[in-house]
Amino acid sequence: MPKIEVCLTPALLDLYAIENSIVVVIDILRATSSITYGIENGAEAIIPVMNVEDCLNYADKGYLLAAERNGEVVEGYDFGNSPFSYTVEKVAGETIVLTTTNGTKAMHLAQERAHQVIVGSFLNLSSVCNYLKKENKDVLLLCAGWKDNFNLEDTLFAGAVVEQLQNDFTVGDDSSVAALDMYQLAKTDLRGYLKKSSHNHRLVKLNIEEDVQFCLKLDVCATIPVLEGEKLVKLSF
């Protein structure tokens, strides 16, 4: 059987051999949730970039520019990474250039070596799991964390994936076991469990509880974004 592993932070990514693996990048609050929602709602592509300044390289192409740092929209940009900025009315047919504190960095690091990079969130949990079962390849669940530190919300999602795949994959590391245990402890009240997280305290100060609640919804989307070249686009499978 293929194996499934969990990398709890991008700072540990070099420890994993991912050349033949599908890497699922996870940044639940809020980058991968917003990306999934945007592609579901008809965005032509989302281009993840590392730095705020990198967005400016696309300023003359007619793309929407989105930049977030520390949970807030960077001044002068069209929007940040709230899922409610990625509605049909705003993004259908558009290409968006996006930089976030954690998620877009994780995507670039993964792309350097991975067989394939896809985006996972609670919004597309079942689609992601069904795809991974179908492909039958090694999987690394890459938690974007918070500035290279471990965080709860990304690990909980990793645990949700492990729960669905554990009978079809070899659980390859203790991080997967820990993520699964955490998810099984928290899954009946994800929002309540996350109230103790450090990121929750940051987001409460930004008054975006509606975003948090939305990002924890299950299977709102069927779409899986996949990184092809520099663009995240809708995966066909």
Automatic annotation (TrEMBL):
The keyword Hydrolase applies. The keyword Cell division does not apply. Pfam families: 2-ph_phosp (PF04029). Its cofactor is Mg(2+). Keywords: Hydrolase, Magnesium. It comes from the Bacteria. It catalyses: (2R)-O-phospho-3-sulfolactate + H2O = (2R)-3-sulfolactate + phosphate. Its EC number is 3.1.3.71. PANTHER family: 2-PHOSPHOSULFOLACTATE PHOSPHATASE-RELATED (PTHR37311:SF1). Belongs to the ComB family. This is Probable 2-phosphosulfolactate phosphatase. It comes from Pedobacter helvus.
